[in-house]
Inverse folding.
């Protein structure tokens, strides 16, 4: 699973207010022919990214090329169940990537279009944000 090798601080603030507005960086297809683009803002965990990547690889039968355009660089902490209030912030729990509407998540090239479309459709079920499938032609309009 994806996570940074080293971070400056062990724990971070949640910063949900930074998810306002549409994505400006990473909002267009750069490498592949077809991609998954987010419709909502949210947080995608490293487990969800890995599950979607595996689904794409299986659907493509290990053919073609896949680009992952997001990286989980924010740590979320959690306390275990039935712990009383107080006694500080919880232990680091999972890594997430904050996404805004319009962010490209995965790109694919090198296989026939129906197979790529089906692979991205299956991968979108693994993600916690609503998304749509876009191609270079659709995006150019």
């Amino acid at each position: 699973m994806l996570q940074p090798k080293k971070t400056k601080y062990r724990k971070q603030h949640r910063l949900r207010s930074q998810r306002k507005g549409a994505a400006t960086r990473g909002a267009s297809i750069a490498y592949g022919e077809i991609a998954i683009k987010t419709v909502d803002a949210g947080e995608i965990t490293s487990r969800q990214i890995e599950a979607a990547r595996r689904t794409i690889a299986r659907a493509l039968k290990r053919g073609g090329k896949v680009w992952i355009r997001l990286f989980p660089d924010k740590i979320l902490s959690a306390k275990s169940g039935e712990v009383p209030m107080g006694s500080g912030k919880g232990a680091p729990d999972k890594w997430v990537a904050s996404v805004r509407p319009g962010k490209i998540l995965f790109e694919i090239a090198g296989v026939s279009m129906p197979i790529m479309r089906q692979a991205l459709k299956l991968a979108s079920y693994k993600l916690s944000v609503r998304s749509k499938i876009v191609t270079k032609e659709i995006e150019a309009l």
